[in-house]
Amino acid sequence: MASSLTCVGVVWAFLSFLCAAAACVGFFMPYWLLGSQLEKSVSFGTFRRCSYPVRDESRQTTVMVEQCGRYASFQAIPSAEWRICTVVTGLGCGLLLLVALTALMGCCVSELISRTVGRVAGGIQFLGG
């Protein structure tokens, strides 16, 4: 198997992949903020939440739904700041994965990554991070 990367490039490719995977897992998990509400443990992230309050119209009370799920729509995310965070973090994770997978392909394919492509990929990683 020919490679277009040096030893440092191979280490960079694998570390990039591990960091991108960790960022994506962190993005998809709803454990950004932990707390309690109505004596129940709650947590939520940018687009997922666990144990959230819902209005029960038949009993005219607020009850806790003790399950994890995503928001029904983009507009259901509680604030504009969280919506912006969802978009920016999602784009960052996408960029990190793109660079990491390209770098891993560079480990297997010769002449795929040049010095210029490596520098551009590093810049993209900086933006993605």
UniProtKB/TrEMBL annotation:
It is found in: Membrane. It holds the Pfam family L_HMGIC_fpl. GO terms for cellular component: membrane. Gene3D superfamilies: 1.20.140.150. InterPro entries: LHFPL (IPR019372). The chain crosses the membrane at residues 12-34, 84-105. Keywords: Membrane, Transmembrane, Transmembrane helix. It is a multi-pass membrane protein. This is LHPL6 protein. It comes from Centropus unirufus. The gene is Lhfpl6.
